[in-house]
Predict the structure of CRC domain-containing protein.
Amino acid sequence: MDSPEIRKIKANTTSSSDSPPVQDSPVFSYINNLSPIQPVKASHLAQGFPGLNSPPLVFTSPRINSHRNTSFLKRPQYQPLSSAEKSKTQDEAKKFLDGPVDPKITQLHMRLITDSQDCETKIRVESQQCSSSEGVDEYLADPSEVDCVDSTQSASPCLKQSNNVPETFTGSKETTLYDNKHNTGTDLGTEAKAPSEQAKEDLEGKQTFDAKPVKIIEQSDGELPYDECPNIESGLSIDNAYKREYRQHLHDQDRGGKHQDDCDHTPQSPPGRLQIVQVYENSAENVGAISKGMIGNMILHAPKARSEQGGMHRRCLQFEEAPPCATGKRDCSLSSIQEVNNSEPPSSMGESKLVKLSYADLKSTSKRQMGTPLPPRCGGNSPSTVPKPSGIGLHLNSIVNAAPLVRGTTRSIKLADHYIGVQVMKSASVMSSHLPDNVRCRSISLNMVEKDSAGPEDRDESETSIAASSAVPSSPHTVVFEGHGPTHEKRGFDAENIDDYEECKQSSPKKKRKKTSSTKDSDGTKRCNCKKTKCLKLYCDCFAAGVYCAESCACQGCFNITDYEDTVLETRQHIESRNPLAFAPKIVQHEEEIQFTPSSARHKRGCNCKKSMCLKKYCECYQANVGCSSGCRCDGCKNVYGRKGEYIPIEHGVGKDNISDKAGKERIESTFHEKLEMVATKKDILSTELYDSHNLTPLAPSFQCSDHANNVPKSPCLPTSYLPSPESDLTIISSYEKSTRSPLRHSESSDILLETSKELSDLGSYNWRVDYDNIGIVDTFSPRCDAAPTTCHITPMSDLCSMAMASSTSSKTSDWTNASQVQLCPGSHGLSSDSSLHRRSSPVTPMTRLGGTKSFQGLDFENGLYDILQDDTPEILKDSSTPIRSLKVSSPNKKRVSPPHSHNHELGASSSGALRSGRKFILKAVPSFPPLTPCIGSKGSSIIQNMSNLQDKGRKK
DNA sequence: GAGTTTGAAACT
DNA sequence: CAGTTTCAAACTC
């Protein structure tokens, strides 16, 4: 019955995934078939995703959650568990959701119902399909469906154990099957369960699944935010897949591998799923049939097809890596393997344990899991990939103000879409690296953990990860399985893991923070320490940055987690409803200033310092490394970056020199060095990402065109003209990371980068770079750059090129330029005034860029430098050039868009062909801003109410 | 590590 | 819109 239809649907979905644009139609059709309600979801998604980024993410995740929730809710079994376990977290979540807006609740319920229905239908179909185990197509389809099936994750571990499936890809197909089974077990619980569950049991021989699913369900219920709707995801295609992966990672990490969250996890689970599926098949059904060969084919095809279908490819990659990335904060482990390892520890810790997870606990666990693995994030290690995870983790740590680079990374990560792209890149790289890579990743993650883990928790994690890694080689499957299972299941799932995680979280996160007194992680991602706001107010740097809290965060009762995407989204919307610019980049270049000063970047709202004289980080302007402007209400301003009222016309190249105070320069330098370091670390991380991106990016061609960057060289404008803008940094960072990732591959790259950076600084590039940090976000977007050439402040590209040339990296300049262009393009895409948007959007473009810039890989080492330079230049360029325009165009909020550079927009109109192509591409792919405002508008009131409720609860806590 | 200071965010 | 309170980061000891 369903199977035929389902298959068709899957085919459709796959096709859709193949061609992102098409995805929607197939997905929609599929959804429609599944359940009438879904369309509504789709609408939500549509709203959220117009931009791709934040909004989409939110929507998607929430949907998924809703599905899960609904499914769970529907099921009596689940409900009981949910009520008991969820307890606090759920209550809080409910407060948020319920309290705020009844309509919302109703909607959520509807969603849940629909989702559950959809999931069920999907599950059925999938189960059938699984039996048939069609192949790549199915596999591809799986992602969307898998979301619904999250529960499979739990099972997956077992499967993995039974079957060693180092390759996530191979698992992909199987994963779908597994998911189906899993879903049936959890969600359906009734129909599909019997077969699927039996199979699972056979494989695992454990009953934990059932219990786990229940837990998950509860969590999911509480977590309304999650969107699991597979359908929607399918429609979203790449974005969804990424999100899914995130979620899965998060869930897996959180849960420690237990199942659950079928819908939610499914996306995340993909890697796990794949493995699981394989295992499942092997053990239960197809076992040999699907086999690795299939997987291999899948993988190969996926990438190829993906080139066409980007989505598919990404998904595959995502599955492996994305999850970790998704977890971002949680899993440092970049690759799925790492994730697995991470998850494994938890599972190993105590799979049997059914921990009642309150939301907070779950979240915390999820974070921890995420983070624990993420430790790699810290990553300064070559494996830098790990570091990103933190960012990737969806954690939105990155804040505009602080370290732009880091922020950028985190943002990209957090932004489901972008993040996904990044993850995909990573995953791709991982995939490319293959199992060996996985092992490496594991080792890396371990290393990262060790490094990061100052606290016992970390140690534990590291140990677990190590164990996992060790196990993996011998029996990767089992290890992976464990890890995935928990991770996929989300937090609640694995009680054992959760407990462990919780312990770790409680102790480790705080400890970590304590250890790292700084609010920033090694990765540069920000950490928050919110105690009363639940990370749902602007007080929370993470939340304010549009990023999910990471493991490293020491926040209490955090709701800024993927599990609570809905809540987060609602809250954001609510805040935005009050202040549309609340999430807009705080640092913006003033058009006035821009003309004269590259460092014209200023704090959007200005500071109100009374005692700090704008010489301490209390001052947001100072913290952002930007000068105070007329908008500041500060008293006795002594901002080294520019005092209120005094404009520091930063001449081209002058940039920092202009800085009035030597101290300011020093600071800048220090910050710059820090950034460089960050970059270096990130590069390592990024290397993988780049790698992935290369694989993934269909856009590569456009990027190659970007190579024309050389064309740009025209830009006499050198870095000096760059305006510092955190945002730009972010965007740049994301791209940078990507580019850097490939470099990272070369462990040496980081060091080299540092050296090169020094050299550059000597050359004068240093100033530029420094400014880069400050460069306004707006500028980050390339549009201007493209067009700008004429006006040119500087095309980032040209600047970059010049820089690169100067640095003696000439040989690689082309690549570098390409990279820069790529970055620029992404930046343009990013547009979104909101950081989140940038993050989300940027990742995608970067990916494409990366793909285009395969040449980079060769240059990896240089890339690192290039990346840095590019980042700088891009920022400048972005600042001066296009960001604004793009923002205006894309961002519904209009927050930043307009202010910074109207004239730039003009330039943007005339962007150069290559850049244009890239930009256009991005724009299409990423409706940058739409998400924020639109979403906000829809749910503002409810969000507010939810927020207030949550806050109240949090306070109580 | 605990406590204080600071200024933004939130609230009234 | 202004004043007050709350909050979390930054800072100090």
